[in-house]
Amino acid sequence: MAKWIAVLLVAVLALVVLTWLIRPGHMDIEGSHHMGAARGLSKAMTSTAMAGVADGEPIVTPRLPAALSERATMGKRAFEAKCQDCHGEHAAGRKGAAPPLVHRIYEPSHHADFAFVLAVRNGVRAHHWPFGDMPPVEGLTQADALAIAAYVRELQRANGIGVN
Ligand code: HEC
Prior knowledge:
The protein is mainly alpha-helical. The chain has one domain (5-158). It is built from six helices and no strands. Heme C (HEC) binds next to helix 4 and helix 5.
């Protein structure tokens, strides 16, 4: 009898330790666990942070940079024209439509600026979020997409993403 209680205790303890180890944000997302860590983050978003957000509402509340560079200002204009309907004002996301780009998943070491060019050119197959595929976006040059990336980077940095 005592033996079974001991076994049960060890099992519970193992579960607690495991839960602690795999909790979102614990893993080193700078490391080689790109996909796993990113999935962990997006799961955290969908299951917790996003739970209280109504459809169509922003998913995060970005701090805004005091000023934007000239390039980012151009990017902002293109973003507002072509991306904002889905990705939300200030790239804060729009629940039911598209994720916030001001999010650690999209920091430069995970999604380089060229990911913006590819997303615009080819669209994006749904993989991090439950919002379906992103269709290709017409009418933007590669330079436009890179300017949008510059805008998103400046927003990200104002929120501590991709700094240092
Ligand atoms: C019709 C809605 C829609 C529009 C318009 C849209 N997106 Fe997206 N975008 C999405 C969705 C949905 C995802 C998330 C896909 C996933 O990972 O599940 C996404 C993902 C992305 C990603 C991440 C790509 C990756 O490699 O994971 C980038 C970058 C991006 N969008 C940039 C843009 C830019 C720039 C524009 C405007 C030029 C834009 N999007 C317009 C819906 C949209």
